[in-house]
Design goal:
0% strand, 6 helices, 215 residues
Length: 215
């Protein structure tokens, strides 16, 4: 949990480096942002490894860990969508931001609806969700490493970033559909359980009471 808190404390420094750097040609704070980003990524993996290795998990830590990831991605993507902050020609377009936020918004609303209808909800990491997160983090790094427009490899790097845009949008849609499907399965299972309990008579399935002994 301590490493999760460290990531949350480093997040403002990372965002400050992005804003302070702007899209100035020299981009003096770009490497600071990349170093802080790398430290946050390493501590994320190390935190999960130590929690499993030492069996030291907590409900608060399990809650804060995905929150730290979402805050990092959400804040980075929004800031790097502004032309006056992102490197020239590499601002993340609005439709990519909508795709990323749309998935999280649908997942959050679906969880609230499922909680209201079923009384409980289980949200576990899914392969598509993990892949989507990896691509989004890769996009942030790719934008931070973007070359100057006059560089010889700028056009090729731009094509790579564009591929990431589309891959993120497609994977976000697939991941959203997967979470909706998982929510629907949980709802159906909860309804079957409630229907089974409703049709069962009072005390059905329990052991019969023992007859009183005669004196």
């Amino acid at each position: 949990m301590g490493l999760t808190m460290l990531r949350l404390l480093l997040l403002p420094l990372f965002l400050w480096a992005l804003v302070a750097d702007g899209n100035r040609p020299d981009r003096p704070y770009r490497w600071l942002a990349l170093v802080v980003f790398g430290v946050m990524a390493v501590t994320d993996k190390l935190d999960g490894y130590l929690a499993r290795r030492l069996n030291q998990t907590s409900r608060l830590g399990a809650l804060l860990d995905p929150v730290a990831d979402k805050l990092l991605i959400a804040c980075s993507v929004i800031i790097l969508s502004f032309d006056w902050i992102a490197p020239a020609g590499f601002a993340i377009p609005g439709w990519v931001v909508v795709a990323i936020y749309g998935k999280d918004l649908v997942t959050a609303i679906g969880a609230l609806v499922l909680l209201q209808l079923a009384g409980k909800v289980t949200i576990s990491p899914r392969p598509l969700g993990r892949a989507s997160t990896v691509l989004q983090l890769s996009l942030v790094v790719a934008v931070l490493l973007a070359p100057a427009p006059t560089a010889g490899w700028a056009a090729g790097w731009k094509q790579f970033v564009v591929v990431l845009w589309w891959a993120i949008a497609v994977l976000a849609a697939m991941s959203c559909a997967d979470y909706v499907r998982q929510g629907w399965l949980q709802l159906m299972q909860a309804r079957r359980s409630m229907a089974k309990e409703a049709t069962a008579g009072p005390g059905e399935g329990s052991e019969p009471a023992a007859a009183p002994r005669e004196p």
